[in-house]
Write a structure and sequence with these properties.
With 366 residues, the protein is α/β, with parallel strands linked by helices. The chain contains eleven helices and 18 strands. The longest helix has 19 residues, at 171-189. Bound molecules: pyridoxal-5'-phosphate.
Length: 366
């Protein structure tokens, strides 16, 4: 037997979540966001599992799109940051890869495209995130430039939410309103139909008024809620990634003894400590604090002491007998990655996405 640390990817859960996105936003087409190796889940496997269900994938950059093409994925793919050079635009157009255009430089690259090539352009408008996108005042001119350009076959107008995970915040309604106003103004001058794309997962789940031609769920496909409160739609999500390992040592220590590097945790009573074969070298967050929940045989134990590169230590004093080889879930079906993330000062998105190559990945439910 080899070191028991692994992530298990549940394809049935993934397909369920995608189906949920589609049923919540039934009039929209789903763009499955699989950037950053499908948030650490493995982009090729995720794309294979979703290609019957969705008509478009989204990644950050051309390299990610070409990896999918090489693996035989034929579905259109959108580059969320667009192209970084005219060469890339050329390749994208030949590969059925669609591009976001968010600045003048990217619009200018169109003139270098070879005669026979055409491209689907997604014009990104900045409605308040203030990260990417042409400013609202410039949106009509940019749209007209694209519409009149012989190399552009179709246009989609898009924007992105900054705080759709907080329903009481007034920003999202303002972003929706501004986006609708821009679309209406462009509708007035456009000579043929164009598409619209607005919501991320939080928008899909909680902002029906944001549903558009192409909705762009990411995190919800992987079964993690974008909200830090209970939400009816989000409660129907099924976690896709389970991060598992096993107990490899158990010892009893006296009150006053410390555990792990830096002696940061001290037993206040005689305690039982279980050592688990997982550490920050496997993707477990080093900044997880003592007290972070970890499941041993389905029971909640608490992390004690610092996370090492290859190991963590748990206080299992209050659990039924814990033995070598007992099953450990770091996060997954019974312990949400979002809860663990809270103990590590981050969000579930980051925990799943930064999973290192070293950690073995096993696919189930396909
Ligand atoms: C990452 C991303 C998404 C998906 O966001 P989630 O919160 O994971 O649903 C959608 N649109 C854009 C432009 C993105 O960059």
């Amino acid at each position: 037997m080899s070191r028991p640390t692994e992530i298990v990817i549940d394809i049935e859960a993934l397909q369920h979540n995608c189906h949920l996105a589609q049923s919540v936003s039934s009039a929209s087409k789903i763009v499955a966001v699989i950037k950053a190796d499908a948030y650490g889940h493995g982009a090729i496997d995720i794309a294979r599992a979703l290609q019957q269900q969705v008509g478009l994938f989204a990644v950050s950059c051309l390299e990610e799109a070409l990896d999918l093409r090489e693996a035989g994925i034929a579905t259109p793919i959108l580059l969320l940051e667009g192209c970084f050079s005219a060469d890339e635009l050329q390749t994208a157009s030949q590969q059925g890869v669609w591009v976001v255009m968010h600045n003048q430089k990217q619009l200018d690259m169109l003139s270098e495209l070879e005669q026979q090539e055409q491209i689907v352009a997604w014009l990104k408008v900045d409605t308040g995130m203030h990260r990417l996108g042409v400013m609202p005042e410039a949106s009509i001119a940019s749209f007209q430039y694209l519409e009149n350009h012989p190399k552009v076959s179709d246009i989609v107008l898009m924007s992105h939410f900054s705080i759709a995970d907080v329903p009481e915040d007034p920003t999202t309604p303002k972003q929706i309103e501004l986006f609708n106003r821009i679309c209406a103004a462009i509708q007035g001058i456009a000579s043929k139909p164009f598409g619209r794309s607005l919501p991320n997962s939080a928008g899909v789940l909680a902002w029906p008024s944001s549903h558009s031609d192409w909705d762009r769920p990411g995190i919800m496909l992987y079964g993690l809620s974008p909200f830090d409160f209970e939400h009816t739609n989000a409660s129907r999500l099924k976690p896709v990634m389970s991060f598992n390992s096993k107990v490899i040592a158990v010892r009893s220590i006296a009150a006053g003894e410390t555990v792990g590097y830096g002696n940061t945790w001290m037993a206040d009573k005689p305690s039982v400590i279980a050592t688990v074969a997982v550490g920050y070298g496997d993707g477990y967050p080093r900044n997880a604090k003592s007290g972070t929940p970890v499941l041993v045989n389905g029971q909640r134990a608490r992390l004690c002491g610092r996370v090492s590169m290859d190991m963590i230590t748990l206080d299992v004093s209050d659990l039924a007998e814990v033995k070598i080889d007992d099953h450990v879930e770091l996060w997954g079906k019974q312990l949400c990655a979002n809860e663990v993330a809270g103990w590590a000062g981050t969000i579930g998105y980051e925990l799943v996405t930064r999973m290192p190559k070293r950690t073995r990945r096993r696919i189930v439910g396909a």
